Amino acid sequence: MLPSGDRRAAGILDLGCVLPESLAGFKTQVGDLRHDFIVVPAVRALTRVDSVMLAQSLNRGAIVLLEHVGGSRVEQGAYFPYVDYHWPVRAKIREFAPSKLTPAPEDEIIATFLGQPVGLRRRVGEGTLVTLGSPLGPLFLSGDSDAARWFNALAL
User: Domain 8-155, CATH 3.40.50.880 — does that match?
Assistant: First the structure.
């Protein structure tokens, strides 16, 4: 259960979003989301209370998409503007300031940028936590069809 006075709108939970364009982009996509799907756009860090609340949702079977916009940036050598997504569908999606994620042993790498992990999936209780180190939300504002296809495969 979400706390009273939560900052959720149609499947979006604003827990300190630091990229307004990510929040705005996700708002264009959440029309028919399942009730057990939560998007947390562009967060740098979660409070203990937020972590407990998300863990409770995950334990009940929710899918939580967490955009993490902290950590070290993946250094670009040669110009390669795409993240390779391997799950839930294969897609090449334009990168948006990707951050390298450090997978735990129970994590599955679902997206890479220049060979570095920028997307992870983990089972938590009955649910699934998907963490993205390259924000997806801003791409919806530009009409990126590959980003929409990937999100729809995850959300529906």
Answer: yes
Mean pLDDT of the chain: 88
Distance separating alpha carbons of residues 122 and 103, to the nearest angstrom: 10
For residue 45, give every residue at least 6 positions away whose Cβ sits within 8 Å of its Cβ, in sequence order, or none.
16, 70
Strands 63-68 and 37-43, by their bridges, are parallel
Backbone φ and ψ of 145, nearest 5°: -70, -30
- The predicted structure's pLDDT at residue 77: 64
Q: What's the pTM value of the predicted model, to 2 decimals? A: 0.89
Q: What is the pLDDT of residues 85-110, one digit of tens each?
A: 999 999 999 988 889 999 999 999 99
Taking the C-alpha atoms of residue 60 and residue 34, their distance in angstroms, rounded to an integer, is: 14
As given in the structure block, the two tokens for residue 81 are: 């503007």
**Number of Cβ within a 10 Å radius of residue 24:** 15
CA-only gyration radius of the chain, Å: 14
- Dihedral, 120, 122, 128, 129 alpha carbons, nearest 10: -50
> How is the chain split into domains, by residue range?
8-155
How large a percentage of the chain has pLDDT more than 90?
73
